[in-house]
Amino acid sequence: MRADGPLAADAQLVLAAGLAEALLSIHTTGLVHRDLKPSNVLWTPSGPKVIDFGIASVTDTVALTSTGHFVGTPGWHSPEQISGQEVTAAADIFAWGALLCFAASGKAPFGTGSPEVVLARVAVAEPVVDRELIAPALRDLVTTAMVRDSASRPTAVDLYEALVGLVPSGVAFPVTRVLEANLADTPPSTPVRATWTDQSSADQPAREGVPPAAPPATGPTGPTGPSGARRLVAVLAVLLIAAVGGIIGLVLTQDDDTESPAESAESAEFTASEPWRITIDDQIEGNDDTGCTVTVLDADGAVVQLFEGVYSRKAYQVANTGVFHWTVNNDGCLVSADDSPAKTPLPFVQMAYSGDTSVFDTSGRISVDPIDFGDATDCELTLRAIDGRSLDFVTAHKGDGPVMLNAGSPGEVYLAEAGCAFRVSVQS
Predict the structure, then answer these.
(1) Which phi and psi (to 5°) does residue 144 adopt?
(2) 126/130 Cα distance (integer angstroms)
(3) How far apart are CA 13 and CA 16, in angstroms?
(4) Most distant pair of Cα atoms in the chain: their distance
(5) DSSP character at residue 66
(6) CB-CB contact of 343 with 361 (8 Å)
(7) Does residue 265 come out as left (phi exceeding 0), alpha (psi in the -120 to 50 range) or beta?
(8) Global pTM?
(9) Which ranges of the chain have pLDDT less than 50?
(10) CA gap 8, 202 in Å, rounded
(11) What integer pLDDT is reported at residue 428 of this predicted model?
(12) So what's the pLDDT on residue 294?
C-alpha cells in the first residue's frame, strides 16, 4: 500500500474474496481472529494471506477489554470490542469492512491520532470513506459489514458466497489447521487419511496439478463447530498460511474425550455414479514438504488419475465414475471426495493456483477477467465440460482485459486450475 497506493477495483475483489475465505476457515473452527488489520494481511502472488493470531479467542470466551484497558489495535476493531461487550465472529466481519475501506482509499476509516481519540471515534462515530473508491461489487457488502449492530452484519459464509460461490457441500471446508499441544501427533482436519506409498519409482508420467485424464493441457505448478473453552483454553500463537485461504494455527489444548476422525491403513472405497470432486490438503510438516502426490485407483487397481505437486489445499474435478480408492506419497496429505458437489452461480472469483473451479452452468459463452497475474504476464485458461472434455482454450495477457470462452452449447462446465486469479461472469 505504501509503495503502490490504494488498490484498483479488481485487486479489491481479490483481497475481499481471499479474506472472506480465510475468515470462513477461522470461524468454522470456532475461533475469532480479533485483530484483523492491514499489517496482519500479506499480499502474495497466490493471493492474500492472514497472519498473527496473538489475541485470537474461542467464540465463547469473555471480552479482552476492561475499564481503562484495551487489548488490540485501535481503529481496526468493532464497537462491541471497544465497549467490552461479548465479541463474536461479527467483530472480524467489521474489521473485514474496515480493511476494504483502507485498501480502496489508503486511509483508515476512523482516522489516525492518539489511541483514546481513535477508540472514541469507533465507539460513537461512523466510518469516513469515499464509497466511490470502493469496487462497485463490494460497496453494499462493506456497508453492511460495518453496521454498529453486530447481529445485522453478514457472516463469513455470506461474504464467501457473494464473492466466491457456494460453500462446497460434503467436504470439511475449513482450511484452518488447529495444531494440538503434541505437534507430532496432529489429527486430520479432513476426513480421510490415505495410504502412504513411495511414488519415487512409479512409472507414471509426471504431471503438475491437473489430472492426466483430462485432455490435453497440463495444469500449472505452483470440522465441525467449536466445543467451547474446555477444548481450547488459550491461544499461544498462530501462523496462518493461506493459499486460497490455507491457514495453520498453534493453540494450547486440554485433553478432550472427543474422538478424532477415524484413520485407516488404506482409504475407504468411494463410489461415484457421476463426475465428482476430490480435495487434497497438504499438511506435511517440516522442511521436507515436496507437495502431495495422490494416485486415484479404480476397483481393479488401475490408475485413473494422478495429481502431483499439490501444495496447500486444492480441489479438482474428476470425470470418471465407478468405485475408487487412492494412495498418497506422505501421510500428511489428507484427501476427501464429494460425489455431489454444489454448483456455483455466476459471477464468482477464483484465486490463482487454487485447483479447478467448481462446476457452473453456462448458456454458451462466458467472460473471464484475469484480475491478478502475480509476477507473470500471461495466463492460460481452459474451459472443460463436466465429463473432462476440453471445450475452449485461450491465453490471456496482462493489460488486455477480459477474454471470452465458448462452451459451444449450454451445459455444466468448469475452468481448470490457472496461474492467475480471475473473475467469471456471463458474457455481456
Answers:
(1) -70, -30
(2) 12
(3) 5
(4) 70
(5) B
(6) yes
(7) alpha
(8) 0.50
(9) 54-71, 170-265
(10) 46
(11) 61
(12) 92
Note the pLDDT of residue 80: 86
Q: How far apart are CA 42 and CA 44, in angstroms?
A: 6
Residue 394: strand pairing partners: 381
Q: Which pLDDT score is estimated for 58?
A: 42
pLDDT of residue 412: 93
DSSP state of 238: E
As given in the structure block, the three cell numbers for residue 416 are: 481448470
CA dihedral angle for residue 44, residue 45, residue 47, residue 49, rounded to 10 degrees: -20
Do 91 and 78 form a contact (C-beta atoms < 8 A)?
A: yes
- Adjacency order of strands within the sheet including 360-362: 360-362, 411-415, 378-385, 390-397
d(CA 202, CA 306): 11
> How many residues comprise the chain?
428
> Which grid coordinates belong to 3?
509503495
DSSP for 314-383 reads EEEEE---EEEEEEESSTTEEEEEESSPPP-PSSEEE-TTSBSPPPEEESSEEEEEEEE-TT-SEEEEEE
pLDDT attached to residue 347? 86
Element (H, E) at 276: strand 276-282
Three-class secondary structure of residue 397 per DSSP = strand
* Catalytic residue, candidates 4, 10, 35, 375: 35
pLDDT at site 222 = 46
Q: Is-catalytic flag, 257?
A: no
Q: How far apart are CA 36 and CA 274, in angstroms?
A: 41
Chain-centre distance of CA 24, in angstroms?
8
Segment holding 4, helix H or strand E? none
For position 125, what pLDDT does the model report? 78
- Measuring CA to CA, which residue among 300, 292, 336 is closest to residue 318? 336
